[in-house]
């Protein structure tokens, strides 16, 4: 099959565009020490949308530009500051839903890597899911 051809008789419905483990430094947390020194956060995204035009016609306008999505996430994590990772995850999800009207639902995982806790933890994290227009998964 060449670019721009559609010889398939299969229907393309929904796809998931994924960004996994984007590591960004930011200042987020409740403790005074967390408010002074940037920490590493790992952000993962799953964006559900129709990928039909992208798949059939090799057209970026029919999907989510994951490079742009990653840049938006970096700008939020680096440029804003929140007490809670729940708020950070929500702002990321909401901003991406507003920027890309093709996204039907988004799942965001925010991990605070090596959090300042007495326990030896790889990370603490939160998952946030938003759906457009009351759709459910």
From TrEMBL:
Record EC number: 4.1.2.25
MF-aspect GO terms: dihydroneopterin aldolase activity
CDD domains, A to Z: DHNA_DHNTPE
Pathway(s) it belongs to: Cofactor biosynthesis; tetrahydrofolate biosynthesis; 2-amino-4-hydroxy-6-hydroxymethyl-7,8-dihydropteridine diphosphate from 7,8-dihydroneopterin triphosphate: step 3/4
Gene Ontology CC terms: cytoplasm
Annotated catalysed reactions: 7,8-dihydroneopterin = 6-hydroxymethyl-7,8-dihydropterin + glycolaldehyde
Domain Dihydroneopterin aldolase/epimerase as annotated: residue spans: 17-130
Annotated GO biological process: folic acid biosynthetic process; tetrahydrofolate biosynthetic process
Stored Pfam families: FolB (PF02152)
Keywords, comma-separated and alphabetical: Folate biosynthesis, Lyase
Functional note: Catalyzes the conversion of 7,8-dihydroneopterin to 6-hydroxymethyl-7,8-dihydropterin.
PANTHER family, alphabetized: DIHYDRONEOPTERIN ALDOLASE 1-RELATED
Family: Belongs to the DHNA family.
NCBIfam families recorded: folB, folB_dom
Protein's name according to its UniProt entry: 7,8-dihydroneopterin aldolase
Naturally occurring in which organism (per UniProt): Acidithrix ferrooxidans
């Amino acid at each position: 099959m060449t670019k721009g051809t559609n010889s398939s008789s299969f229907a393309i419905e929904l796809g998931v565009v994924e960004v996994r483990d984007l590591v960004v430094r930011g200042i987020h947390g409740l403790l005074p020490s967390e408010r002074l020194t940037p920490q590493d956060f790992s952000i993962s995204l799953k964006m559900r949308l129709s990928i039909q035009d992208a798949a059939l016609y090799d057209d970026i306008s029919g999907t989510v530009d994951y490079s742009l999505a990653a840049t938006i996430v970096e700008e939020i994590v680096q440029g804003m500051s929140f007490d809670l990772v729940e708020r950070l995850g929500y702002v990321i999800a909401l901003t991406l839903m507003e920027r890309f009207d093709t996204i039907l639902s988004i799942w965001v995982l925010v991990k605070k890597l090596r959090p300042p806790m007495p326990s030896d933890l790889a990370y603490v994290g939160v998952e946030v899911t938003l759906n457009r227009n009351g759709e459910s998964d």
